[in-house]
Design goal:
Length: 385
């Protein structure tokens, strides 16, 4: 290894030439920790090793090219690599390529990979307050969640919670509000939920159970056959874009929405904290702002594609789409409130996270009457839609 100079002086063109030469020689990784080069003995050699290349593996919970999570994680890896001019080179791995989907958290914590792309509520078994940074039943919309995390103290609490595990995350995406799900029979009253067997993950499962049903969880690929064979009577997945792609309309009779359980499901870029902490300031800024771009772009892509997909489901596939009856959705939200409140009693940090989150949510609801919600209600009434 060559000695560092105090102030490396090099030109961009030299860096590129140097980097490609190193790549061709297959020694890029060996130079990972080599900061700017140049020695008194070989001053002319300095430019060829001036560019410090950091290589990260990004493991994910998603299949390759999976709409939403998969495509957004691939875009994030590419965006950081490009924005850093290749200095932070991130290679994306689909679920199962390096580790299975639900092992992303542990693999990043242990440093098997430097970062991962995931929905944080998959890690509820690590800490019961983690879903607040993803989604909980009766919780925040995508914009409310981003507002809480970025401007409401959420990021600081998330950092405190994740520091216990040696990881650090930024919000980098959101599905937007999710649908209530696909049902084989009509839901006309609370009684219709008695005995229903429904695919439902996270804290929403507890709500289904308290409604008199039985919640089960299963990955995407198992939902279709389970609905078709009658193993389950109902299933939620995401929303029109993802649900159309999986073809649930072929096997289920009714599509209810919106749901009560995922008002806006956040995705995270989860990083090994040591890996993140050792990044130079400019690369930290690139990571942060690439995540911020994803947090904006991902929910609007979901919105645009789901609006189009809902029309296709209705007009082309004649799907019966409807809201839950008022007494049913009211009960779902009432039980959600109880289930989520119970989290606060689990520990000191749980209580602080719940308080920050619920204070922000209630403030948001008071404002929403005069903000997006109030405006959209009036607009729809006026337009008759
Ligand atoms: Ca879902």
């Amino acid at each position: 290894m060559k000695k560092k100079t105090n102030k490396p002086i090099y030109k961009r063109r030299d860096i590129l030439i140097g980097a490609s030469a190193l790549t061709a020689a297959g020694v890029l990784t060996a130079c990972k920790d080599n900061v700017s080069g140049g020695t008194p003995e070989n001053p002319g050699q300095s430019a060829s090793i001036s560019k410090k290349i950091i290589q990260w593996k990004m493991i994910t919970c998603w299949p390759r090219d999976f709409p939403g999570g998969g495509t957004h994680s691939q875009k994030l890896a590419q965006r950081i690599t490009e924005a850093s001019d290749g200095r932070l080179e991130i290679k994306n791995f689909a679920a199962g390529e390096l580790v299975p989907a639900f092992e992303v958290f542990d693999a990043v914590r242990e440093g098997t990979a430097e970062c991962g792309h995931a929905a944080p509520y998959y890690w509820i078994s690590k800490h019961k307050a983690i879903p607040f940074f993803c989604t909980v039943p009766g919780g925040m919309t995508a914009s409310e969640k981003a507002a809480w995390i970025i401007y409401g103290g959420g990021q600081q609490l998330w950092d405190e919670l994740y520091a216990e595990f040696g990881v650090k995350s930024f919000l980098c995406g959101n599905t937007g509000v999710q649908m209530g799900g696909w049902f084989q029979k009509e839901i006309n009253s609370l009684e219709d939920f008695q005995g229903i067997k429904m695919r439902m993950p996270g804290l929403g499962a507890e709500v289904v159970n308290r409604m008199g049903g039985t919640a089960v969880n299963m990955p995407a690929g198992e939902i279709m056959p389970a609905l078709q064979s009658g193993v389950i009577d109902a299933a939620e997945w995401v929303g029109p874009w993802n649900d159309l792609a999986l073809g649930f309309y072929k096997v289920a009779n009714y599509y209810y929405g919106p749901g009560f359980h995922e008002g806006g499901t956040g995705n995270e870029l989860i990083m090994n904290k040591k890996s993140y902490d050792t990044l130079p300031l400019d690369l930290k800024a690139i990571v942060k702002h690439a995540c911020l771009a994803g947090a904006l772009e991902s929910p609007v892509e979901y919105f645009a594609r789901s609006a189009l997909s809902l029309d296709i489901l209705i007009k082309k596939h004649n799907v019966d789409v409807r809201p839950f009856p008022k007494d049913v959705i009211n009960k779902m939200f009432a039980i959600s409130k109880e289930v989520v409140e119970e989290t606060a009693s689990l520990g000191e940090l749980h209580a602080r996270i719940y308080k920050s989150w619920s204070d922000f949510l209630y403030q948001s609801m008071r404002y929403q009457k005069y903000s997006d919600y109030g405006y959209m209600r009036d607009r729809s009434e006026a337009y008759g839609i």
